[in-house]
Specification:
The complex is a heterodimer of chains A (about 280) and B (about 240). Chain A is mainly α and about 280 residues long. Chain A is built from eleven helices and no strands. In chain A, about 35% of the residues are buried. By secondary structure, chain B is α/β, with parallel strands linked by helices. Classes of the chains: A mainly alpha (about 280), B alpha/beta (about 240). The structure holds adenosine-5'-triphosphate and magnesium ion.
């Protein structure tokens, strides 16, 4: 009997190692494949140069990506954080409105982004008349991100111990002060990481943006212009560009990897700063 | 007064007077309702949704469950909790939180209050070089004294202390006891304690709780030397509880 148990534990062990190996290898494989192919075609002019048919530079897409991230977060982050504060601190626990909002956020979180894209194109693009533009794209992605940030902020706020709230009330602080001076700052590291995560979602988004922000290869002159984010640029280049397009796509992928790396470094730096005074 | 948590009757017909500039000790076995009564004195029980209170609690003749400003009431009744609960911010900001809440903004004024409160709570010497460091980085006993300093910083009239020394070493305990004896001149103090010696040493009046009732209350001297109830005697001599 003992030996059978032993065999089982060996099999389990092998399986665990195998699973880890496959995961690490495939991640490393993808990453190095992109990087190797990206570096092969690397030229500064392809990244920062002016876009033309001779020099299919991605500089405009970098600008568009940054603008899109910034504007989308500007719309989505404050709204979702306040919404989460309301749901956790102000609404009665288990009340109807909380249950409906929860149902709504859960449903919204599960809807494929292309559906949001379609909705955004019709509502912001056609009904409100913004057409294919950065504004339409940002509104759409912001709506898509609301449930994500709300849920994670809620979790972060719920993790703040009641002892802090009691301490604040015990000193005669109002509810407003308790919530915004004690509870939200204590939850800040969680809220920041929720926002960073949603930055990743914006960078990676294609389906919703093709319908709304469009795919014109140009440096946008205003928020009402169409353009491409890097991810969309990559998609269009692969689809339409033949062999040369694939090279552009790999280089774009390399740049994306690099940006995400930078973002993570920045995130852990900010997270560390925010968390220094308010660590749990 | 009576107090219920949902269907649970936590305090039965409690009737107690607490005198000014005296230390009143609440003693009794775990779960008998000492913290519950203490928390109803500054309406911290308002935060518990199931909590229901009947009867009357007055402060200087005013019904505290009547038409009053709860935040002002809590400012007048400083509270130190059973578990140390410094906020996750710097030591300075912890102590300054209360005064800032009540509108003091001037840096020099805050500095003065912070220093005075920390000195009063006998912790100034240990933290004066790291006021800007996180309050969570100090020991549990220091955290508790910090919480006392934080409570003192709002200049309360009454101090409600829930087992303030249960997490402290004997030396800090003595410091806190001396501090309370000193503060008695200016404050009215209510202290929950499991330490009979402490109750005997510092309190003027004692109330003995059992199963949500006050079995006996009166001068500490009388209760400890000559308890009129058998259960009180058993408890303070350590025969049960
Ligand atoms: N928020 C609450 N909801 C429901 N019941 C509660 C709540 N707080 C306390 N109780 C109950 O009320 C009773 C009295 O609790 P309380 O905390 O006042 O005891 P205590 O005398 O302070 O005990 P200890 O010495 O352990 O601190 C206990 O039976 C407890 O289970
Ligand atoms: Mg207690």
């Amino acid at each position: 009997m003992a030996s059978r148990k032993n065999v089982f534990s060996i099999i389990l062990k092998v399986f665990v190692y195998l699973a880890m190996g496959v995961t690490v290898l495939s991640l490393a494989g993808i990453l190095s494949y992109i990087l190797v192919n990206g570096v092969k075609t690397f030229k500064w002019s392809l990244i920062f140069g002016k876009f033309s048919s001779q020099n299919p530079s991605m500089s405009f897409a970098i600008v568009t990506t940054c603008v899109t991230i910034f504007l989308t977060l500007l719309m989505a982050a404050p709204l979702s954080v306040f919404c989460a504060v309301y749901l956790t601190e102000y609404a009665k626990r288990g009340s109807k409105i909380v249950r409906y909002v929860r149902l709504a956020t859960e449903t919204l979180a599960g809807i494929p982004s292309i559906v949001f894209g379609l909705f955004g194109a019709i509502f912001f693009g056609t009904v409100l008349g913004f057409g294919y533009s950065i504004l339409t794209g940002c509104f759409t992605v912001a709506i898509m991100l609301l449930p994500v940030i709300i849920r994670q902020t809620e979790e972060a706020i719920k993790a703040v111990p009641d002892l802090y709230r009691e301490g604040s009330y015990g000193l005669g602080a109002s509810k407003l002060r308790t919530v915004f001076k004690i509870v939200v700052p204590s939850a800040a590291p969680g809220i920041v990481s929720a926002i960073i995560l949603s930055m990743g979602r914006i960078i990676g988004e294609t389906a919703a943006l093709i319908f709304t922000l469009g795919s014109v290869a140009q440096l946008p002159g205003s928020l009402l212009d169409s353009s491409r984010t890097l991810a969309v640029h990559m998609y269009i280049a692969t689809r339409d560009g033949g062999a040369a397009g694939r090279e552009v796509a790999f280089l774009t992928g390399t740049v994306l990897v690099f940006i995400i790396f930078l973002m993570n470094v920045a995130a852990s730096y900010i997270g560390g700063k925010v968390g220094k005074d308010f660590e749990n | 007064m009576n107090l219920h948590y949902g269907a649970f009757h936590a305090l039965h017909n409690v009737n107690l007077g607490i005198d000014e500039n005296e230390i009143t000790a609440f003693i009794g076995p775990s779960g008998c309702g000492k913290s519950t009564l203490l928390k109803s004195l500054n309406r911290m029980n308002d935060l518990v949704q199931t909590c229901r209170i009947t009867g009357k609690i007055t402060l200087d003749g005013e019904d505290i469950y009547g038409n009053i400003d709860v935040n002002m009431l809590r400012k007048r009744m400083g509270m130190v909790f059973q578990k140390p609960n410094p906020f996750p911010m710097s030591i300075y900001d912890n102590v300054a939180y209360g005064p800032r809440t009540h509108g003091i903004k001037k840096k020099s004024e805050l500095d003065r209050i912070v220093e005075e409160s920390l000195k009063n709570a006998a912790i100034w010497d240990e933290v004066k070089d790291r006021l800007k460091k996180s309050a969570l980085a100090v020991s549990g006993g220091q955290q508790q004294r910090l919480c006392i300093a934080r409570a003192l910083a709002v200049k309360p009239e009454v101090l409600l202390l829930d087992e303030p020394t249960s997490a402290l070493d004997p030396i800090s305990t003595v410091k806190i006891e001396d501090l309370l004896l000193e503060l008695r001149e200016r404050y009215t103090i209510v202290i929950v304690t499991h330490n009979m010696g402490q109750a005997a040493r510092i309190s003027d009046k004692t109330a003995f709780f059992l199963h949500g009732e006050i079995v006996e209350s009166g001068l500490t001297m009388d209760i400890f030397s000559n308890p009129s109830d058998r259960k009180t005697e058993d408890y303070i001599t350590g025969r049960f509880g």
